Amino acid sequence: MAAAARLLIRGANPKLSIAPSSFGATLLKLSPSCSSRTKAQRRHAAHFTFQPDPVPTQYGSTQKMNLFQSVTSALDNTLANDPTAVIFGEDVAFGGVFRCTVGLRDKYGKDRVFNTPLCEQGIVGFGIGVAAAGATAIAEIQFADYIFPAFDQIVNEAAKYRYRSGDLFDCGKLTIRAPWGCVGHGSLYHSQSPEAFFAHCPGIKVVIPRGPIQAKGLLLSCIADNNPCVFFEPKILYRAAVEQVPVEPYTIPLSQAEIVQEGSDLTLVAWGTQLHVLKEVATMAQEKLGVSCEVIDLQTILPWDTETVCKSVVKTGRLLISHEAPVTGGFAAEISSTVQEECFLNLEAPISRVCGYDTPFPHIFEPFYIPDKWKCFDAIKRMINY
Amino acid sequence: MAALSNLSKMSGLCLRAARQAAGLTASRLLQRRALRVTAVQLQQPFDSSLEKPQFPGASAEFVDQLEFIQPNVISGIPIYRVMDRQGNIINPSQDPQLSKETVLNFYQKMTLLNTMDRILYESQRQGRISFYMTNYGEEGTHLGSAAALEPTDLVFGQYREAGVLMYRGFPLDLFMAQCYANADDLGKGRQMPVHYGCRDLNFVTISSPLATQLPQAAGAAYAIKRENMNRAVICYFGEGAASEGDAHAGFNFSATLECPLIFFCRNNGYAISTPTNEQYRGDGIAARGPGYGMLSIRVDGNDVFAVYNATKEARRRAVAENQPFLIEAMTYRIGHHSTSDDSSAYRSVDEVNYWDKQDHPISRLRHYMTARGWWSEDDERSWRKQSRKTVMEAFERAERRLKPNPELLFTDVYHEMTPGLSKQRESMWRHVQQYKEHYPLDLYEK
Fold first, then answer.
1. ipTM at complex level
2. DSSP letter at B68?
3. Which residue of B has its CA nearest to A89?
4. Collapsed DSSP state (helix, strand, coil) of residue B78
5. Which bin fits A273, alpha (ψ -120 to 50), beta or left (φ > 0)?
6. In Å, how far are A2, A79, A96, A216, A335 from A72, measured between CA atoms?
7. What is the pLDDT of residues B292-308, one digit of tens each?
8. Are B253 and A162 an interchain contact pair (Cβ–Cβ within 8 Å)?
9. Catalytic residues of B, which ones?
10. Cα A95 to Cα A78: distance, rounded to the nearest angstrom
11. pTM, full prediction
């Protein structure tokens, strides 16, 4: 796994894959056929446009951070304020393969930021033990794709620890962070969005931020929360998303969706990177169809904020849910079914799900696989004309 | 060059000799550890001019002969014993010299556990509780190890370690409450019988998935090490559970992260119906320890003093040196795997009888006590009567008690009650009120 991971890390560096290198630029001039291929790659690598949130004013001074830096900032705040807190996983000591833990080992010591052997079931089991002994455990799984070896520890152990012991023991101080979602060229095992597997598991919380500000606030909430949390970080945003993030600690409440944009004709729900896709789709719908969309960032997958979503659908009468993960058994199914139950009399069209196809996540076909803005836009068109 | 290769041959021979030597005593293990540490330190300076291996992954010499390392399973790691089957101390230097009160306590707790096992086993056969697992033949491993620990040491178990709780003073009423899942159960009636847990006695609640507790114990030991409060963690598991991936994780994590942890393996020969020759082909579990860089020992699990000595020393060193220890206690599972299993389907009655009649931890300790005049036939008779009475009284109290309020089905899923769960709880109550004649409401607390 580490070998595979390292392959991607080189590719994930935007200097190599998104911005053309000087070597690539030379090729570009030399060969016209090459240039068109480079352009094609550049286009599909950015299937969304990140727009920074307004600068938060209520938490003191801010600093320009990308998503990986805001994660580091949250971890830094935690280690500074909680002497029991430890961070561990594969390759976190030198700063992590995505740079999320850079500098923390030097600042807080090697007994607090350390590498583990390469074994995901061990990492989560170890984290549960740290938390059960009363310390704050922040475990990293290198890619969400590699969280499955720890599925047993998460589902049978972490999620049920408090319930089965009658609250004698718990692992509420455990947070598992993992890079998540598509990245342009991650193929089967560096692209997955496994949130729905965990959504079927009472006892854990599953949280996904859409940008640096939410990443820090939600991660600090996960760490402070008294329940084991799985925090998925959209890795395509690690470097791409940059905004002003408060330097001091602050929290954004869990299980609370955020209405990112108000609208009256249609509700759009997504999380992570897909939220940015839907924001763009909302603009397209307004411009091309004159449709006013309400855009909601769900933020917490489990336990999710039914109230905000249902309220919005009661108002708009239409709902489109979009996620990168495969459609069958995806979390959109849960949202769709609940909204149908709660808002039956308000719905004016069938609820639409624009998701990944029911295939493994492909390599070269990624542009055709992902639920991009055109697929979402087309779905809106059909819903409006229903 | 020639000198080097000679040297490497010699060290190879020495190592082989060490492997084949019958007695792998603690002191020899200690030497090995010392060797290992020196070797690791030697590995650090990189000098490309030397004609010796520079690979970062291991510290070793070259050899110029092709030779596979052979596992030694015929003459395995020896089994440490303090007293023989008649309760005689074999080597006086190994006698832990425990006081009469301590030994009597061992014996009474072992037999009390045995009595509780018999009564609860029968109660399952009569359908009064849904499930049970006895501890027959393994009482010595529980008591001997528990007594060697501090009460503050954290225990992670599998499910056949009730004697550890018994030693720590877990009341019979609470054992019964858990099995009956009544309103007194600390676990609120949510888990199957024998899934005990007790915060006050530092005994982490048992769960059914095997070996999941091993890496957890490593994590807890790591956190405890950072607290620096002179505490250790002990983690029990069977030889079958040791085949799980989590066992590998737990061993390796605890060694690389230097955790004050004792892995205590109960090797009782069977995992349900699977005999050990279908479980592994190496020299049991103890032989795996050195592969992880872990100090390891094998003890006679029917010898409560051998278990006590090994655990005591492992505990002392685990805390002092922040490193894990592995104890493999050889025993025999005399009872069925559980009440859902009939072990005569896969093993002979003669085999079971041997261990029950001729090599049992309880009878061995009794021989030891009788020889010292600490225990008589009369003592035995009156203790049997008294312990049976105590167990029966707790049993009857537990059976009469109501089950917990069904409300508790919904709490503790999360630390807080979530809106979704709260809705489901109201929905259940609405339904149950409407259809109350179809639900056993009178058996539950209101």
1. 0.91
2. P
3. B253
4. coil
5. alpha
6. 21, 10, 10, 8, 32
7. 999 999 999 999 999 99
8. no
9. 122, 208, 337-338
10. 16
11. 0.91
